[in-house]
Amino acid sequence: MAFSPLSNAATSATAKPTLSFSSSLYPWPRRFQSSAPLPRRRRFVSIQSKIREIFMPALSSTMTEGKIVSWVKSEGDVLSKGESVVVVESDKADMDVETFYDGILAAIVVPEGETAPVGAPIGLLAETEDEIAEAKAKAAAKSGSASAPPSPTKTEADTTFDTPAVTATPAPAIPQPPRATPGSSKPSGKVVATPFAKKLAKQHKVDINKLVGTGPYGRVTPEDVEAAAGIKPSKPAVPAAQPAPVAAAAAPSKPAGAAPLPPPLPGSTVVPFTTMQAAVSKNMMESLTVPTFRVGYPVLTDALDTLYEKVKPKGVTMTALLAKAAAMALAQHPVVNATCKDGKSFTYNSSINIAVAVAINGGLITPVLQDADKLDLYLLSQKWKELVEKARSKQLQPHEYNSGTFTLSNLGMFGVDRFDAILPPGQGAIMAVGASKPTVVADADGFFSIKSKMLVSPSTSTQNTWCFFRIHLCHNHILSCRYCWVCHSSLISIKL
Amino acid sequence: MQSSLSLSFSPGSSSAAPAPRSRVPPDFLHIAAPQTLASLRFYGIRREVLGFSSLRRFGCHFSRRVHVVSHERPPRRLSASASDNGSASKSFDYDLVIIGAGVGGHGAALHAVEKGLKTAIIEGDVVGGTCVNRGCVPSKALLAVSGRMRELQNDHHLKALGLQVDAAGYDRKGVADHANNLATKIRNNLTNSMKSLGVDILTGVGTILGPQKVKYGKDNVVTARDIIVATGSVPFVPKGIQVDGKLSALKASILIHKIEVSIILLLETIIHRDYFTKYLFFSPLNGFFHYFITCLCLEKPTGKTVITSDHALKLEFIPDWIAIVGSGYIGLEFSDVYTALGSEVTFVEALDQLMPGFDPEISKLAQRVLINPRNIDYHTGVFASKITPAKDGKPVTIELIDAKTKEPKDTLEVDAALIATGRAPFTQGLGLENINVVTQHGFIPVDECMRVVDANGNLVPHLYCIGDANGKMMLAHAASAQGISVVEQVTGNDHVLNHLSIPAACFTHPEISMVGLTEPQAREKAQKEGFEVRIAKTSFKANTKALAENEGEGLAKLIYRPDNGEILGVHILGLHAADLIHEASNAIALGTRIQDIKYAVHAHPTLSEVIDELFKSAKVHSEVSSPASEPVAV
């Protein structure tokens, strides 16, 4: 398979147009002819800037475009003549494409999985390391128009194409698998990285030697690389690694499989979910696997309102107040702060982290007030302000939105007086908070009065429900001072 | 010649195989002879025989070795009795005794019964041998799981088919049970098939005492006109590697037996009662006693981190990261299983190239399809010089040295290591010293007809060796074919097995299969013998059925002689390759030429059309060598 994918697409980003050079076949005579009168320095430049293009070869007479199956070599790899560089899929078969020149694969213009027309540059080959940067710049310019066939209008140099030579016999040479990388990739001592981590690091251009492994024995795991590359795991590398009961895992898929969706109405447009929307959707679907239990309870908020009026000028928001109240209640009833992950046991969380649902542009996120029971109301408010700002600018770190142990969802400010919140996976409970509004209430003596009343509806997983009831029934004093959560807002006032 | 296919260790490492047995002086030859007659009464099997003296047979040995002809073979009896299960000739208990009830022994036994021989099979471990209990069979169960997992995990593929499947999961124990249940089922099938045909299954370790005489178990001796050794192989573990898995079942049972006997002897001496032995052995106490000692001897199954295929097939745990030493069939299949179940894999290969036994073009494609897209990396050209099991909170460490310079290269830290460096013949306790046979690299030397050759280069009369123990081609079906060939010989038919017609398969996803020569082998042969070699190739991408399955990845390659149309080799990588190879292997076995087989009709649309097209695309100079049979008017 001796395709000549390389042309001497001589390039001279630095050289002037007059300084034409190239065709590696006859470089010297030409250069001497053309550049003899030129100063010496320039000639030096022309030698330096020899970057060859790797073209999509024509692998069959009917082939018009080819798909890059895989790059056998990666950027920065040193190639020697005759080595396989890239695997190209034509309309007939997959073929290995070999290089006809020694050099360094400076840039990949067309990545794996993409197609390019025959003759289009798919990669750049630099002769020396010094040219890599230049080639990269060139590649960046090219990748914009990668799909365009090589323009014959290239003026920078007298480009010479080697006609891709196709020989009938397959490559007789024994294939040379790329040398195993690990040996060379960690010269600075013991950085142990798993095969998938190495692969990801190469893909995302992460220097594995600079990572601190969090895996067993301090090894670098795929997750570490993904974190370093700033990407969320696209999907768990191994969805099946845990011996999870198959039935549970398969459950959410059933509705999708059972009821085929009706075809979209004519004229409708389909807009795919953004990543965040997809994540929200996934979480919501997952919540269906947890049986939940909802209770609603009206609470009188006159005391709370008074308190709020008092602290509002100091920058305390209702959210902070509610979070603080919830946190203090949770401190007394750790079982509600616990999670039930396996259906057999509670995991008691050591800290009380109140997640508060916030709508942001195009989605929903739950910034977390960590250790909300320990921080005072003012610090909490300040923290909350920061978190909201970060959330709006999408700068929340993962631990700032996924470490919640209890969630608060407040729609009161929109005048919503009651709603059910959906329990996020992995948490023990969520509390929906409605609007507080003046209501006529009758007291024990039959006297009517107008009090501010607010409906709170916690949803909790049924695993926690039993305990929930226990709290209610056994702790009459809590019941008597209204609902336990808000009862604690009075505690705040005491503290203040 | 083909044995290199199944042995992934390099020639260098093969010298590290179990040391050859030292040559035994001739005086030892008949040392066990006096015990023999007494054993007959344990049997009580005396049959009156309607035997005829057969003509002295000049079998396949006749023209092959000069020294063979000079070697005097005793007259042979052909049992021509009418009885179905055969009856032994007057002077022997059996016509044929097979040591080892693996796939090879089983195949030989079934064919022997068909040929009217009175047959017994001796098994020291469990019926079915490596293939059924610790090899091909349970691994196919695991690979069936891994294949489905791959399908369910391949979102892209599923989407292309219009399927929606959410996260696939598995239960390790369920998978392990599937493998174990399959092995049990096949083992029972094997046992029943032999029992129903009247093959005597004798339990105990078989030892050759002398010509035509075998001891099994403690002290039962049987005589047989012909003996086939089919003791198989065990995983080969190179020096410096500590395997912390369990003792193999066979080794354990031998050890247990020795301990039991010594305890009983001890008790006898203490109590001075000579009936103690009998009493204890037949009492219900024995069961408890045996269990107790077994528990003592077997290591606890926890914390095994350096294992061979024997243990890996039990799937006791699935490590996050496993190093597989050796990238031959076994290593490749396990990499398929482990990566499908979520492990990451690091290959350690002594040769410069992964999958050294395969045709280079196939191994190149296999690397692209089976290695590169998966969570696998590899180190080639290195030996695993030392492997230390995980202990005291430390991971498994593997020290790598350069295969050529022997200089230290790297140290791997992984969660587990699977030693898949090939298999070593198992001939322990076989009593080869009694017949002056010396193993070569552990293998029992045989000629082309599987007749055992002794230390002096002479044939041992009436002794054959088939399967992994002779190392000709370490494949279950090869052993069976060799066994059938031997039975043909002992019943008077000249038969030589063409090893080049034996297909081999690797059950990865997609599968790899091959028969005959690889391209370099064919070119070498062509150069020596002065003929032309040509290659034809077809892709699965052009096959309707493969495309319907959305499994177009694959290649079929035909190596042939354009002058006479002889098929030299066929190599396939692709969907169901292991099932597709037989058209080619049968053609090679029957000597069918391309110009004939290309007119055979294949159902459309089937994967077999890949092979059809392969034959059709070959360019053969000569005309149709034998016209198709008479046309039939319809």
TrEMBL record, chain A:
User: Which keywords does this chain's UniProt record carry?
Assistant: Acyltransferase, Lipoyl, Transferase, Transit peptide
Q: Name the Gene Ontology molecular function terms of this record.
A: dihydrolipoyllysine-residue acetyltransferase activity
- Keyword Ribonucleoprotein included in the entry's annotation: no
Q: What class of enzyme is it?
A: transferase
Q: Which Pfam families match?
A: 2-oxoacid_dh, Biotin_lipoyl, E3_binding
Q: Where are the annotated segments for Disordered?
A: 136-191
Gene3D superfamilies xref list: 2.40.50.100, Chloramphenicol acetyltransferase-like domain (3.30.559.10), E3-binding domain (4.10.320.10)
- Tell me its family: Belongs to the 2-oxoacid dehydrogenase family.
Compositional bias of kind Low complexity: 138-148, 158-171
| Domain Peripheral subunit-binding (PSBD) residues, every copy | 192-229
Q: Which cofactor does it need?
A: (R)-lipoate
> Lipoyl-binding domain location, by residue?
51-129
Task: Read off the InterPro entries from this record.
Answer: 2-oxoA_DH_lipoyl-BS, 2-oxoacid_DH_actylTfrase, Biotin_lipoyl, CAT-like_dom_sf, E2/Pdx1, E3-bd_dom_sf, PSBD, Single_hybrid_motif
Q: Which GO terms describe its cellular component?
A: chloroplast envelope; chloroplast thylakoid; pyruvate dehydrogenase complex
- Its name, as the record gives it, is Dihydrolipoamide acetyltransferase component of pyruvate dehydrogenase complex
Q: Which domain of life is it from?
A: Eukaryota
Automatic annotation (TrEMBL), chain B:
Q: Where does FAD bind?
A: 140, 206, 231-233, 468, 474-477
Q: Where is the active site?
A: 604
Indicate what this protein is called per its UniProt record: Dihydrolipoyl dehydrogenase
- Annotated GO MF terms: dihydrolipoyl dehydrogenase (NADH) activity; flavin adenine dinucleotide binding
What is its cofactor? FAD
Where in the chain are disulfide-linked cysteines found?
A: 131-136
Disulfide bond found in the keyword field: yes
Q: Where is this region: Disordered?
A: 1-21
**Pfam short name (any one):** Pyr_redox_2
Could you tell me the keywords of this UniProt record? Disulfide bond, FAD, Flavoprotein, NAD, Nucleotide-binding, Oxidoreductase, Redox-active center
Residue span(s) of domain FAD/NAD(P)-binding: 94-246, 304-483
What does the sequence similarity comment in the record state about its family? Belongs to the class-I pyridine nucleotide-disulfide oxidoreductase family.
UniProt keyword NAD, yes or no: yes
Binding-site positions, NAD(+): 326-333, 349, 422
- What do the Gene Ontology cellular component annotations say? mitochondrion; oxoglutarate dehydrogenase complex
Q: Which residues form the Pyridine nucleotide-disulphide oxidoreductase dimerisation domain?
A: 502-613
Explain how, and how many, cofactor molecules are bound.
Binds 1 FAD per subunit.
Q: Which InterPro entries match?
A: Class-I_Pyr_Nuc-Dis_Oxidored, FAD/NAD-bd_sf, FAD/NAD-binding_dom, FAD/NAD-linked_Rdtase_dimer_sf, Pyr_nuc-diS_OxRdtase, Pyr_nucl-diS_OxRdtase_dimer, Pyr_OxRdtase_I_AS
An example Gene Ontology biological process: 2-oxoglutarate metabolic process
